[in-house]
Amino acid sequence: MSSRIFTVPNVLSFIRLLLVPVFLVLIIAGKDGLALLVLVVSSVSDYLDGVIARRFRQITRLGQLLDPAADRAFIFAALIGLAVRGVIPWWLFGAIVARDLMLVVLGLVLANNGYGPLPVHHLGKAGTLCLFYALPIIMIGQAFPDATAIANPVGWAFALWGVFLYWWGGTIYAAQTARLVRIPRDELPPVSATLDR
Q: Is 191 found in the same domain as 115?
């Protein structure tokens, strides 16, 4: 894996991050159609940077950080913008932020005990994917009133499943962290073996 910074996939990821504040401003202003267009551009660039990174062997450490960071930033921008407008309740925003803050705390606990971050759990990925579908679908209902009757229930179904899976994955991270920090360092098996139990 390369430690290069200026690769085509990384530049695309930087552009995606720069689009996040544009996306947020458009949502708050109620320009959901334009916000969805920005999201489509971001999604296309996300797909392209993955294809280019694999095909031309430009996978980098920085890219592995930027890509999920951009995804998370778009989710938070959508949550903030829609909550400010009253489209979604603040408790939904709070539930997602609280889970991510919990993961930050768990990461600090692991680091203080000499461990790196835990492997990403498939439940956390599934929760993120549900939220990544939920918020644009809810926005479609706002942008196109004729689609509201379908978009709102589908969007909320994805949102509620996303929060549930997000927290389910979070409790697994918490349990794994508690298990690791209780094991004396001199008796510790490889991390993968510990987490497979």
A: yes
